[in-house]
Description:
The structure holds 2 protein chains of 2 kinds. Chain A is an alpha+beta fold. Helices cover 63% and strands 13% of the residues of chain A. Among the domains of chain A are: 1-178, Four Helix Bundle (Hemerythrin (Met), subunit A), CATH 1.20.120; 528-686, no CATH class. In chain A, α11 runs antiparallel to α12 (328-348). Chain A is flat, with a radius of gyration of 28 Å. Chain A starts with a helix and ends with a helix. Chain B is built from 4 helices and 7 strands. Chain B has a 5-stranded mixed beta barrel. Chain B has a single domain, classed as CATH 2.40.50.140. Chain B starts with a helix and ends in a 16-residue tail after the last strand. β4 (401-403) of chain A pairs antiparallel with β1 (28-33) of chain B, so a sheet runs across the interface.
Amino acid sequence: MFAEFGYGILVVSFLVAIYGVIAAxxxxxxxxxxxxxxxxxxxxxxxxLITLSAVTLIYLLVNDHYEVAFxxxxxxxxxxxxxxxxxxxxxxxxxxxxxxxxxxxxxxxxTLRKWDRDIEFLPWVIVVCSVTLAFFxxxxxxxxxxxxxxxxxxxxxxxxxxxxxxxxxxxxxDGNGLNPLLRHPGMxxxxxxxxxxxxxxxxxxxxxxxxxxxxxxxxxxxRLTRRWSLWAWLFLSFGLxxxxxxxxxxxxxxxxxxxxxxxxxxxxxxxxxxxxxxSVMIQxxxxxxxxxNMILVILTYSLVIFGxxxxxxGVLSSxxxxxxxxxxxxxxxxxxxxxxxxxxxxxxxxxxxxxxTEMKSMLSREALFLLNNLxxxxxxxxxxxxxxxxxxxxxxxxxxxxxxPPFYQRATAPLFSALLxxxxxxxxxxxxxxxxxxxxxxxxxxxxxxxxxxxxxFFTYTKSIPALIGFSLIAFAIxxxxxxxxxxxxxxQKIQGENFFTALARLTSRNRRRYGGYIIHISMALMAIGxxxxxxxxxxxxxxxAQGEELNISDYTVKYRELASWDNIGEGVNYTRAVVDVxxxxxxxxxxxxxxxYYFDAQQNMTIPGNRSTLRDDLYVLLVDWQPVSSxxxxxxxxxxxxVNWLWIGSLVFFVGIIVAAWPDKDPETEVVRAxxxxxxxxxxx
Amino acid sequence: xxPKFILGFxxxxxxxxxxxxxxxxxxxxxxxxxxxxxxxxxSAVNKSVRxxxxxxxxxxxxxxxxxxxxxxxxxxxxxxNEIEAQGGLAEVLYQAVNDPTRSRVxxxxxxxxxxxxxxxxxxxxxxxxxxxxVFHADELLLKxxxxxxxxxxxxxxxx
Lengths: 686, 159
């Protein structure tokens, strides 16, 4: 009953989306405002429809309807209700519906805005959103139907949507249950965040396509979608950070990023999206790089669809594996077709997108932004090459050769370092023209301070040259950015007669995009400290110890005290928890409780680390094995991860920065004008 | 565009190409099946290899004192289409483990015993074949295909 209802609603939404596409195209061609309005209403209608279908699915999940194949796959009776709800995106079929739900929600939100002088964009934005929506709904209806049920037939049990001849409905006694690895707060929020990011990048793409089709090739589409892009970027970034945090807390291998294809698939749209956020500024300020921005937004869209496909089919069977999936070819066909059409439109409008001025100085702000874009694209190429290399080598040599994490680390480290350096100097350069002298004058203090810090680190912390280069770049970037805040606030203080902190707050709030961006730059540098720390200085030890014995690593001592193991029948889990005492240089610091959770329904272990986190380092203790009776004791693996906490601190600062940059203005147009005036004032005062 | 921009662009591209090529060379790993590894014989010794095979449950041994894990893997095809044609990964792994005529190789791994290691799991190991004919794995990934894929419940489960 419910299953048929949910499925029927999906079919109706699919038809409504298709109707929206046809009505919008036809309406735009014949300049029929009525038809376009009808398409807009169709777009708006999909959201309540898909919501209804999703609510039906959640109802089935929560109420243990194990005759439904998807419910059987991702839930079990022992799971608490909130996990049954979040199991919605715990499997491929459900998460495709989740994608459609977000897509229709965002598309509705965007069609509800006041269109006034941008009304010509409307039909084409509807077309792009509805086509994307129809694609995902079509996948749900024809290939990955979450409402498929089990039927008893002569040969056994088969999944079908509707009853085959002579079949009776089959209800399993209990479900498989969500993969225990996914029953973690980080994993509950991580997929929706990533999806929010993915889906919101469709909106800037839709506007770009609308601009190409209508020939309104000024920067209007960029101004309209600036905030969308920022929010999309925020969600995508947070999806990545949460995924990393989850890996660190749950996967128990001492790290947070393994460069496996699924992670890279989510990282690639982030790279193009970040490049896009930077390069649109050049178009807004200087009228340059119009083709390039189109290419970036088209690439981002393609990578978003690609990423949805990879993350979805991968995360299920294992964190580190692809699953074979029937929908793969369809995804590639969709990506291919939309990419070709987008590029064809771009080529058609190529002459109208010519730059308004020419880039002159190598050190101008726009040239440095262009360099930043090149670096992001280079990292993208490295990632893409790494992912497809096995295919290429098989094609040309007949032997499948793969590249692992060392490839990515080696190839991207210099590129990331160069980005750090650019991040430091680019805010100092001027639009149009800068010289080595002007740049040097404004950066020498920070450069000297960074050099002093590096020398201090050499004597107190590390003698490793690559690490010192990294630290000096990080220090340089942070110091210059702080100096920019200082300079702006001092100038304002002089002119307006405010005290320093008022000046700082007003400076930031009057020019939020710029200073929000600087806060994000600082957060990136802070994250870089964590990434550098764990990559350059991670140490590990492992061993089996009897009760009362110790393991030593760097200046820590880990003493095994006791171990307890018990069943929690209600949750269907066996917990084995060790208690270890932690000392540093002989001083008692506290206890850690590494544990192993064994899930009966999934027959799977989860190794949860005991982690003691400080700004200096993390002590990360894993319980590996234990002997219940004999005095042999337990086996532990211990990592010391220096500075890794800065990664998480940086991500919080990042959040602050992007809120500052993306928070809605009362009136965006006047805000921009006022912001420009402030800039002129500060530079005049300097 | 001025020549200096084009020159700068070309320099950067050259640097990126160099980075990619040299890093690829430095970290390439050869995908091999157990059959291929056996066929290469001594020429495969000390070559960085990513080996895949089906774990044979009875052979898993773990010494928690030295963190030494040993087990044997049986040959499974490396071709996804072939695996699909034979009834999916779970079926192929089951057959590989229960077929005594398949070629097998002994694996040694020093470290924590992974949670997913059990019979009929697919092991994907990165490491090198030693002179002793034992595969020394540095990295061990496991896939257990049946558990969360579209498994159809057994008839017996219904009451």
